[in-house]
Amino acid sequence: MAPLEGAWRCLSAERRIPAPKSDDRVRRLKMLENDVAEMNGEAGLLETVALDRGQEEKVVARFKADRDEQYREFFDKCADPEAEIAKQTAAEHFTYAELEENDVDLKKLQGWLDKIRNLDFYGAALAGRRQSD
Length: 133
Hints:
The protein is mainly alpha-helical. It has helices at residues 3-16, 23-38, 53-90, 96-119.
């Protein structure tokens, strides 16, 4: 991947999700801005404020709804590895390869959940829910 393409992917990932301001986000965005400048590109960083409380509440509600949808999708996918483990147990298929495969699946799910939580700035309703709930 070309350096510019990598920087664009990072910038567009940050740009797609307007997030509450934090020192870490500002630092990361400034680093991306510097990367773009080093490649003879131009970048600008903006801070926005909602016009009024009602507009802010709409944005927050949208964030929460989007995260809830991601949590629902995550919980649906959690059933797949559980079903596979039940199937392997019933067949008494206990091999190291199967264990490795299950471990990889679990790590993917954990990574996915971490990504959702990192975007859950406002505490979506399903944030604390367990799959069994």
